[in-house]
Amino acid sequence: MTKHENEPIVLEEEHIQRIRRIGKKLLNVANCLVTFGSVGDKQFEGEKSVATVEAQFINSLPLVKMPEFVDDTRQDRFLSNHKNVVGAPYIRFYASYPVKSKVRNDEVVGNVRVLDYSPRVLSDEERDCLRDLAALVERELELLSADAARQDLLKKNWSLRRESMIDSVSGTWNRAAIMRMLKQEVEQCRANEKPLSMVMTDLDGFKKINEHFGSNIGDALLVKTASRLRSCIRPHDSLGRFEDGKFLILLPGATHDIAKMVAMRLQHAIKSNAEMVGGKSIELTITSGTVSTDQFASANSDELLSLACTTLQSAQKLGSNSIVQAAPRNN
Q: What are phi and psi of 84, to 5 degrees?
């Protein structure tokens, strides 16, 4: 049984109205309605009109599993005493054709129903028209089910794709994802004539922490570091784990000066919270390098990344908890 087999049948109102218009025109009847389960066409609910009574009459009848043709309701043993037959609006003719669902193994899920105010006998051709109307509804249901299945598949594919783009340890974007985003941001910011800044940051002493305390402790610190870094940036900024204890942060719209401020904010967020590791309280720090397109206007994504890595190395030479910004040599 698929996910959609137990879901209620719901067709677009526009589709129902189209089928109703076709039915009324083809069969020359007072009304044509489409009902599903115990819930009928509620278009006229709350209105005081003949159409309301017609809908109520249709909704009062159970779904039929076989075609039903009542030439004269007053002569029918089940309908002859119905209040809408013996009283206003005095319905005299009624016919119904079952609607089946392939998703539910040809279960009858609805009916196409027509009514009129004079007794009549449908010709074979008219009966075929009623059957075709039911087939039209069945086709709409198939399309609805196929579209729902396609949407489910798209969601699952996106979920799988997203999972493949997430770093399994830190929960941030992984290297492949953040690199793809870098290329996209470079193109987008250039097209919008806005600067793009990036911060390459490294958790100081991460390798030694892993060697001394084990990878489980190291991974836990990466998660906490990623969380603190994320808390310092805007929702439309991007954070990805580059490698080991290194993270790359993309700041679309941020200038050279703003990148420095962000790097300082990141630095403070990490240093201000000591961590208990192996029963000891240790102070974590990060070292960062920044690069901005307002300083390197013609640089492509690869060149910007190379500058960020080089700048980070320069910062690391200064010692832990340092920040260095990339600048053209003539500056």
A: -90, 0
Residues 225-256: tens digit of each pLDDT: 999 999 999 999 999 999 999 999 999 999 99
Q: Is the pLDDT of residue 68 over 80?
A: yes
Starting at the edge strand found earlier in the chain, the sheet holding 31-36 runs 31-36, 107-116, 93-101, 68-70
Could you tell me the CA-to-CA distances from 294 to 237, 247, 255, 324, 325 in Å, in that order?
Answer: 17, 22, 6, 16, 12
Q: What is the DSSP string of 103-143?
A: TTTTEEEEEEEEEESS-----HHHHHHHHHHHHHHHHHHHH
State how far the Cα of 262 lies from the Cα of 111, in Å rounded to an integer: 64
Q: 203: left (phi > 0), else alpha (psi -120 to 50), else beta?
A: beta
Asked if residue 289 lies in contact with residue 304, where contact means CB atoms within 8 angstroms, the answer is no
Angle between helix 206-213 and 215-231 (nearest 10)? 140
**Domains observed in the chain:** 13-157 (3.30.450.40), 175-325 (3.30.70.270)
Name the residue among 13, 67, 12, 9 with its Cα closest to residue 38.
9
How far apart, in Å, do the first and last CA atoms of the chain sit?
68
Sign of CA dihedral 296, 301, 302, 305: positive
Q: How far apart are CA 220 and CA 208, in angstroms?
A: 15
Does pLDDT of 259 surpass 50? yes
Distances (CA, A) of 314 to 182, 233, 271, 289, 324: 22, 24, 20, 8, 7
Please name the residues in contact with 102: beta carbons below 8 A apart, sequence gap of 6 or more: 138, 141, 142, 145
Q: Which amino acid is at 125?
A: E
The candidate with the shortest Cα–Cα distance to 122, out of 113, 288, 290, 239, is 113
Q: What percent of the chain clears pLDDT 90, i.e. is strictly above it?
A: 65
* pLDDT, averaged across the chain: 88
Of 142-156, 269-283, 307-321, the least confident: 142-156
Q: 58 near 70, Cβ under 8 Å?
A: no
